[in-house]
Amino acid sequence: MLEVEHLAVNYRGVTAVEDVSFRSLPGQMVGVIGPNGAGKSTMVKAILGLVPISSGVVKFRDRSLKQQLNSVAYVPQRSQIDWDYPITVWNVVMMARTVHTGWFREPSKPSQEIVKEALARVGMLELRSRQIGELSGGQQQRVFLARALAQQAELLFFDEPFVGIDQKTEAIMFDVFAELKLQGKILLVVTHDLGTALTKCDQLLLLNKQIIATGSLKEVMTADNIQRAYGDSVLLLNR
Ligand SMILES: Nc1ncnc2c1ncn2[C@@H]1O[C@H](COP(=O)(O)OP(=O)(O)OP(=O)(O)O)[C@@H](O)[C@H]1O
């Protein structure tokens, strides 16, 4: 189980995330939604220890998650990745294995097999020698999905994975997510997309600095909760 208790983050005295608590069980997909600047990415980064937390505890299997980061895969927002960096598809995915083989050793045969399988799973094996900058948005997202798979993590975090992707990529992603859930992994997905993706989630967190609502799609997406999280801007969407 993943347990987040009273998590708070301040950036130079400004509160970005306040008193966030939730739990997630193996095999569950948690969707994190909320308006721009609601602290969704910050919450994920804080859980992963990538930004300092001002208070709170994050535990996985009853121990501090910090001590178990090799069980975690994280796919950041596409905009946070330097797509001009000269690296091939194959090597991006192989990076997931460096924790197992070390940076300067030749990757082991099993690691090579794992990378190959992950790339095949997302339909990117044939493009393995391409530079990542030469891919479409959907293909880039699939490469990072393959990297997460090759890490064989127990906890997987995706920040806005559905942005700028094609239908084929979306279908592959939903398929892989379903498979990971069956394997008992915990998935946490930040998304702007208030459509199909939400119906796949077992639990939703509606965030605006604090948790506005948590529970099933039906429990969370009430007019009142949406108004509280998004304010009047959502009324414009409904016109
Ligand atoms: N490194 C940083 N330093 C200072 N403030 C930051 C930093 N990163 C984010 N913030 C601020 O913290 C708040 C939450 O930002 P965050 O990116 O976590 O929100 P978000 O919900 O992920 O937004 P979006 O949907 O636009 O990606 C915002 O007010 C943002 O300006």
Automatic annotation (TrEMBL):
It comes from the Bacteria. Residues 2-233 form the ABC transporter domain. SUPFAM superfamilies: P-loop containing nucleoside triphosphate hydrolases (SSF52540). CDD domains: ABC_Metallic_Cations (cd03235). GO terms for molecular function: ATP binding; ATP hydrolysis activity. PROSITE patterns: ABC_TRANSPORTER_1 (PS00211), ABC_TRANSPORTER_2 (PS50893). The keyword Nucleotide-binding applies. SMART domains: AAA. The keyword ATP-binding applies. Keywords: ATP-binding, Nucleotide-binding, Transport. Belongs to the ABC transporter superfamily. This is Metal ABC transporter ATP-binding protein.
